[in-house]
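Q: Is it fine to ask for two folds in a single conversation?
A: Yes, each is treated on its own. Send the first.
Q: Here.
A: Result:
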Amino acid sequence: MAEALDQPSEARERLRQHFLGHEPSEQTSQWDALWKAGDFLPWDRGGPNPALIDILNDRRDLIGDPEIDAAQDSDSQKRKRALVPGCGKGYDVLLLASFGYDAVGLDVSESALEVCRKYAASDEIAGKYPVRDPALGKGDVKFVLGDFFKDNWVDEANEDWAVGNWDLIYDYTFLSALPPSLRPAWSGRMSDLLAANGILICLEFPTYKPPSTGGPPWALPPTVYLQHLSRPGEKIEYDEEGYVVESDKTNQMALKRIAHWQPERTHDVGKGTDWVSVWKHQQ
């Protein structure tokens, strides 16, 4: 599911038709079929989004360092833990590990994970993910099969990496791959998984589409992120045209948006329309 969904209208319509008429419970098999066939992967951009690279390099003021603060360090944990749901071919997972995070890529498609494991073990990645901090070195990398909304992947990821223990979560094209009916569950799960001092990074895409065009990728203007993450787990009202109805309400699970900007660099498909939002729990 993961990287960018850069496709002309013909390919976008082909992708939409592939999912048309299938219930949310049938999404897993539909994604797996695309990965298994391997000849139509319009979301795959061949590498991580430049916006994420720039965030990891330049915005430590927001996201902190990949190493646990010495005052909080323990014998069992030195690095922060990062989760990439809908990891696709694994570009973002390898990038986060190169910055020093212990990174887990999660996907519901076994075929996708077969592809990303082969990629991670191939000569193709030589020089693409260099160690950013020689003193810290690379973090561990795991690719795990599982449903983001369930705990069926917890043991493989390591039990203490599950609910409430993720220091960084990155969402790019994961939410846009989900039917809108799953957005309350998405926001609730993000709030549950994120550590007390953790950071959620959302690269908001596609912000430019009218909701009437359907998906995937489903239209995601910034207000969708703001309304759902302000009230995780709650059903949010939409108008007749499919646009979210804005409200100032929050709930006890709310995540607070601490930064929001348009990145200088991103994949071509999102230039001029992508946004970055950074979130944390309300203290």
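Q: Second one now.
A: Result:
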Amino acid sequence: MPVNLPDKLPAIEILSKEHIFVMSDLRASTQDIRPLKILILNLMPLKITTETDLIRLLSNSPLQLEIEFLGLKSHTPKNTPIEHLQTFYKTFPKVKESYYDGFIVTGAPVELLPFEGVRYWQELTGIFDWARTHVTSTYYICWAGQAAMYHFYGIRKYPLDKKIFGVFPHTVNDKAFPLFRGFDDEFFAPHSRHTTVSAEEISQHPELTILSQSEEAGVYIVASRGGREFYVTGHSEYSPLTLHNEYTRDMQKGLDSVELPKNYYKDNDPQKQPVVLWRSHANLLFINWLNYFVYQATPFDLKKIKELGDLT
């Protein structure tokens, strides 16, 4: 099934050129199906790019999805046209009485700040709390995953001596866990971050389960509440050129600490095309999340989400 998107969202044209079928509101309204309602809180500066990356993966599900985008009242992005935000993004007061099958919260370029030092921290944590009673399953990405674990469980983040930057191999701790159906014994995922979380600290909280790790990149996926919340430290949603664009941006800034993204360029040569090692894992990850933790767990009457316990 295609993804139902707001009319004229830029991602529609971009993904159509990639032969990915997406559906506008007008066409979707003629189908007698209750689509899964997915809310995306997009905290990334280049919002159109992030929208497109996420929709590219969500569109591979056989389920029909209705996508909405959420922005923050306490933060005005500088890298996205205001017309785009006004047309396609809602603020929290507009959605707080609604219920959603799934919720995705992206990363944000604020990881070196203390959590409480982020100007929108109070609004953001209010949304985190709201999601626990209004969403079936929430998928937190990178900084958002760190922020949510800190807010709910007090898990701290730690600065790294060197940025974790590149594509790294990972393993699964529980191969029977439905999120990893169809995964190989070893799989790859991109990372791009200056901070990390402690596996030892997470393991001290029985409410949290470390599902996947990397010897080099550390903790990758943590679950809580039986799958009602996932905290993902990497960026499986990245397009083939995202790490290249980040590397080029930092080189142009003249940053002394810039290193080549690991396991990324063919022959480790930035003049050559990247080798995409994570696409199949990324598709499976999002499809499994939608299937096992959203579609199969959500009530038909979304208002009954408040009655859901842990998904165990």
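Q: Anything structural to flag on that second result?
A: Two points. The chain has one domain: 3-307. The longest strand covers residues 158-172.
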